[in-house]
Amino acid sequence: MAKMGSRKHLKRYKAPKSWPIHPKEDTWTVKPSAGSHSIEDAIPLTLVIRDVLKLADNSREAKRIINSGNILVDGRVVKDYKFPVGFMDVIEIPKTEEAYRVLLDRKGRLQLDLINEGSAKLSKIVNKSTIKGGKTQLNLHDGKNVVIDEDAYSVGDVICLKVPEQEIVDVYPLQEGATVLVTGGKHTGELGTVSEIIENKDSNPNTILIENSAKDEFLTLKDYAFVIGADEPVISLLEVNKWTQWMKYVSKKPPSVLVLVKLVKNYPVLLLY
């Protein structure tokens, strides 16, 4: 009888759509190990080093870089070449003095955004429970847990953690007026402001009404909203996400001022105002 269970290998054409790789360049690819993110929401560290950052020409070189302890994820050294790296994870390379944050583009693909320093990370509270001693355990979207003495947070809020200590620095509640980044659905990667939170009393999932910089409103699931700031984003964003910020700038200009914006390679360029 054939052996049952999950395969240890993964073909490229079956790789998740969130991976920024071409499905027909090769036959096989690296399958991420079980970890903090699911296979649909994570990319193996080998592909980050070889295919995204172009620090290695092949898998052997990428494995050597990772095994040497030169890669940090959320402030901790990672030597597993299959380690799953997911949304909002912070990757640091001390030798090059570079740090990257994993974000989603408008097509739902995982991309790296170059940041100044990687000592802080945003994590969304997906669940919480009471443990021994009356303390509260916050379960985060990346599989990590934080134990606190007082229950002062709600599910859906986003906390800013100091890594690798996992100390809570700040909190951004999911409420009306908050700036959110959509992480699922057809509006993935879009930036907007929460207009209304709709709590359904039946079995239907809760929804949220978001207004983008063009003053257009759209409805999406509440679980897809990831708060990245109270009034404005507290983190840097990808250029495709920044397009909404450009539109916000244009919408604030008086009618008598001409603003000319051109898309160059899908990026907005201000030509005249």
Task: Give your account of this protein's structure.
The protein has 273 residues and is mainly β. It folds into 3 domains: 10-115, Structural Genomics Hypothetical 15.5 Kd Protein In mrcA-pckA Intergenic Region, Chain A, CATH 3.10.290.10; 120-171, Ribosomal protein S4, central domain (OB fold (Dihydrolipoamide Acetyltransferase, E2P), Beta Barrel), CATH 2.40.50; 179-264, SH3 type barrels, CATH 2.30.30. 11% of the residues lie in helices and 37% in strands. The chain contains 3 helices and 21 strands. It has helices spanning 45-52, 59-67, 239-251, and strands at residues 10-11, 28-29, 42-44, 72-73, 76-77, 84-86, 90-93, 98-104, 110-115, 120-130, 136-140, 145-148, 158-162, 167-172, 179-182, 191-198, 207-211, 217-221, 225-229, 260-264, 267-272. The protein has a 5-stranded antiparallel β-sheet with strand order 5-4-7-8-9, with no helix packed on it. Strands 12-11-10-13-14 form a 5-stranded antiparallel β-sheet, with no helix packed on it. It has a 5-stranded antiparallel β-sheet with strand order 18-17-16-15-19.
